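Example 3.2
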Amino acid sequence: MILALAQLVLAQTGDSWDMQFNEPFVFDRQVAFQVLDLLNHMPEDVDRVRAAGVTAICYVSVGTIEDWRPDLALFPPSVIGKPLPDWEGERYLDIRQLDVLLPIMSARFRDCKAAGYDGVAPDNQDVKDNDSGFPITDDDTVAYLRELANLAHAMDLLIGQRNLPELSGRLVTEMDYVMAESCFEWDFCEAMRPYALVGKPVFDVEYIDSGIDWTAACGAAQDLGISMILKDRELTGTVWEGCE
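Structure, written as tokens:
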């Protein structure tokens, strides 16, 4: 854990990262931080990544169910909300129900640990900002994420904030990094600055179909201390560009 944390905390602007969920995969790219999906990558893939000195991070959705995950039956109907409009097979979770969700997420984190990952990347943290079917508040979100951070750290796993720019100041103490999605396109990169100010990495992915000015995006990333990459929305290994 000490080595992985040191590698991550020492990430500098321009140090790069990648996130690969769909084939074809590319594992020989020189990056410092790699986000993979437990179902799509074998333990030997994780071993290969870590052997190259790369911090391996395990994707986990903490705000939705995904009907292709093997633990789907563990979620009772009471915590399952409305479907995500753009993602077939996913439905929002009532993240206020900590007694139900924390044991499930703890088991997921343990699976990541057993597969050799250095940390977890919890996604879909922004249930409160969507039509989930539940009256989720900022305070509910912070309470849930703090408990998840406690779980991860007890297992010697890194854990990060995902988006939620307005909560960066409240979560920066508990989280080890922040990962944004399209912060340049949607103009919220500045809100991630609390992490950079305390020396914690700020990662952002922009998408090739957004039409953004990539040169301008990289300039903003350099100014704000963000490690920014350009990817396809399928998150394959072959489509990738980092800021020079």
